[in-house]
Amino acid sequence: xxxxxxxxxxxxxxxEHFAVSKPTMxxxxxxxxxxxxxxxxxxxxxxxxxxxxxxxxxxxxxxxHTFGLGAKAKPKSTDKTxxxxxxxxxxxx
Length: 93
What we know:
4 helices, 3 strands, elongated, disordered C terminus
């Protein structure tokens, strides 16, 4: 995924970065396509893989939301103890 963020690459170019067999790479490519994370383009005999950023961004945002990351603002607590002034706060009359 990180390699494809830089630029679209052929299956051969991607394979050069991993010490695995061609059938293993093919299975990984198929999984990425099935997940909708990449799309392919045929150029003669070459298959060029492109990262689908919108799908990836959506998945990452869902992941972040699940764990409370990237929230714009925390909801205000309804806990009454927060309204009690501490020694360091001035009470306004």
